[in-house]
Amino acid sequence: MAFYRPWFPSPRSQFLEYILLLPLIFQVMLGHGVVKSEKYPLVVSTWPFLEAVRVAWRTVDTGFSAVDAVVEGCSACEELRCDGTVGPGGSPDENGETTLDALVMDGVTMDVGAVAAMRYVKDGIKAARLVMQHTEHTLLVGEQASAFAISMGLSGPTNLSSSESKERWTKWKENHCQPNFRKNVVPINSCGPYHPTNSLELHEGTCSNTALLETAGSRLSRVGLHSHDTISMAVIDKMGRIAVGTSTNGATFKIPGRVGDGPIVGSSAYADDEVGACCATGDGDIMMRFLPCYQVVESMRLGMEPKLAAQDAISRIARKFPDFVGAVVAVNKEGVHAGSCHGWTLKYSVRSPDMADVHVFTVLP
């Protein structure tokens, strides 16, 4: 006959059970329990750059950090030359050259790396990360940024122009270099050199006032979806850590040396894992004067919902510059996201655990 005896856990079995439960205990203690796994990871990006978002999602969903995912996602967009506004081969400046701006920010440590007006190196976002990893600086610019990136192992020097960008530049020259970003100047011949309108020594052959008016035309003729754009991406990883990154080749036919808001922390992007993140796109020369992404994150810190925070940041700019074109996307640490735009219709992309693939959201101005 079988003998029944009540089971009481031995000290050894209790110890083994405790060991098995340790990972769950630590997750709960750190605030990374099961509840967050329903929301994270999360990838949010400006525009329907679907493959870039998919690459970022695959990276973060397999356990890599938010910073890793941002870099891989933006790098994919550079390789694909998204809309001709990201990576090499697009947006020639007045000299016909393509240069790159990029930024990456870790919302946990608040470390930032950025490059601006970078020549000869095609990997903008990777160069930005190298600045963050291997310097005490935040931003490197121009040929010295290129030299640093190459010294850290990136390929180069490389010609960043393409047949498309060269053809676009040639047509622009044939159109007397119109439209452009000059103002209050008089050109000699049709494409410069330029002199201030109040110059006392105007050279012979100076163009008429009609040419001057054309040169100083509306910003709307110079800023548009395919001439002035950025990928700006925010990622929340499985541990709830937040990072943001941007990459752009800037404004088409910009004055050489121009830097937009792409590499400016707080303007094109900002992240704080205690609050959330923001991504921006549009007319960087105007938007960088307001640091809209810093404004969005700080508004959310004070309790404002993402939608209202985004609308507030855009409205601050529109009150001063009613003709500006731009947009922001806000996402809080709970994964709630919303966008706001002015002057154009914004489309932004999201991938979350409850989606089978990337979903594109449309925001009307």
Automatic annotation (TrEMBL):
- GO annotation, biological process: proteolysis
The UniProt annotation places substrate binding at R258, V259, G260, D261, T281, G282, D283, G284
User: What catalytic activity does the UniProt entry give for this protein?
Assistant: Cleavage of a beta-linked Asp residue from the N-terminus of a polypeptide
Q: Which Pfam families match?
A: Asparaginase_2 (PF01112)
Reading the lineage from the top rank, the first entry is Eukaryota
Its Gene Ontology molecular function terms? beta-aspartyl-peptidase activity; N4-(beta-N-acetylglucosaminyl)-L-asparaginase activity
- Tell me the active site: T230 (nucleophile)
Sorted alphabetically, which keywords does the UniProt record give?
Autocatalytic cleavage, Hydrolase, Protease
Kindly list the residue ranges recorded as spanning the membrane. none
Gene Ontology cellular-component terms listed: cytoplasm
Query: What EC number(s) are associated with this protein in UniProt?
Result: 3.4.19.5
InterPro entries for the chain = Ntn_hydrolases_N, Peptidase_T2
Q: Where is this site: Cleavage?
A: D229, T230
**Complex formation:** Heterotetramer of two alpha and two beta chains arranged as a dimer of alpha/beta heterodimers.
Kindly give the PANTHER family that the UniProt entry links to this protein: L-ASPARAGINASE, N(4)-(BETA-N-ACETYLGLUCOSAMINYL)-L-ASPARAGINASE
Family recorded in the similarity comment = Belongs to the Ntn-hydrolase family.
This chain belongs to the protein called beta-aspartyl-peptidase
